[in-house]
Amino acid sequence: LAAACLMASAVPFTFTFVKTIAQNTSGNLRDPSSALQDPNGTWHFWTDFMPGTVQPGWGAYLHHYQSPSIEGPWTFSDLAFEHDRNASAWGSYGSFSSSVIYDKDDGLWYIFYTATANTTYPTEQTCAQLVASSPSPYGPWQQLGPVATPTGQPPSWNQTWNARRLDSGRALIIGNKKYYYTKGVKDKSFAQEGAYQSVHSNSFAPPYAELRNNPIYPANASSDLAKDGYENCEFFPGPDNKMHVICSSHSGGGQPYFTCTSADCLSWERQGSVNTAPAGEPTPVYEGIPGDQSKVNYFIARTQAKVAGVNRLVIGLYQIHWNL
């Protein structure tokens, strides 16, 4: 087992590779949702599937995998849904970077995902966050509409922190309240994290409203992030009773690492950086509902492996080791 290399002594954990848990002979897999259990104990995650040799996920499909245990065997279950047939609709070009959560209050599964449109993504590189629900992790999924859409205008796309794109969000229950944390992009690719909540009382159903004081951690607060920002943040509780946040940096030098300094995780303190390679943007495996009351002992992430003699992006399982 190869341990991930830490880039700052303040980071209190390491990762080790356990095994490959999902692969596809006809394409690449990347950017899985968190893995979580249904009420019957079966594990689930959703991941981007790109046919052929394509690796970027902008035009991906969401594939669903299931397993009786976190270490497998994992098997492909189903395609969550097809792309929208309306060329101007979000989701007509691609559906990817999903976040899934079970809401016991209304007995529904919610799948949040990033969506691109045929008429705008190829020219403007815009995307939005959508959500669908189902009483079962196997669907069928009812499309509920947008969670968050770009707030800016061409040609600059620099009016707001989320002017151009919103993608790679996470639905979580923090302090018994339901939040949706998501990346926002302005200009060409300057990324930061913000938060939204449903306008309905403590619900995951849309419509959603942006919370005040976004972005949560302004990228110019750290010199190494000020150039290109940070993105694709993951939230997980530690044995120190703190919420920890790992993001990805556009500026190199490892993945920015934070701890939450407020009960709602809407304030962060920078702790350093961590290099989780070969795990590409690892996503927590939640024992319990995703949020501050769960336990996290494993992560899943894209990595590389030969599949039928071809180099592919696959999904691997990683164990987290705390050094507290």
Whole-angstrom Rg: 18 Å
SSE sequence, one letter per element: EEEEEEEEHEEEEEEEEEEEEE
Distance, first to last CA: 21 Å
Quickly give the structural class. Answer: mainly beta
Q: What's the pLDDT, averaged over the residues?
A: 93
Report the sheet-strand fraction: over 45%
For the secondary structure, the number of strands is 21
Oligomeric assembly: single chain
Shape: globular
Query: Helical amount among residues, as a percent range?
Result: under 10%
Question: How would a textbook summarize the main sheet?
Answer: 5 strands, antiparallel
Q: How many distinct helices? A: 1
Which runs of at least 5 residues are low in confidence (pLDDT < 50)?
Answer: 1-9
Outline the secondary-structure elements:
Layout: E1 13-22, E2 27-30, E3 36-37, E4 43-51, E5 61-67, E6 75-79, E7 94-103, E8 108-116, H1 121-124, E9 128-134, E10 142-148, E11 165-174, E12 177-186, E13 190-198, E14 208-210, E15 230-237, E16 243-249, E17 255-260, E18 268-274, E19 280-287, E20 295-307, E21 310-322
Describe this entry's structure for a reader.
This protein is mainly beta and 324 residues long. The chain is built from one helix and 21 strands. Strands 2, 3, 4, 5 and 6 form a five-stranded antiparallel beta sheet that branches. A four-stranded antiparallel beta sheet has the order 1-21-20-19, with no helix packed on it. The protein has a four-stranded antiparallel beta sheet with strand order 7-8-9-10, with no helix packed on it. A hairpin with a 5-residue loop joins β15 and β16 (243-249). The longest helix is centred in the middle third of the chain and has 4 residues, at 121-124. The radius of gyration is 18 Å and the shape is globular.
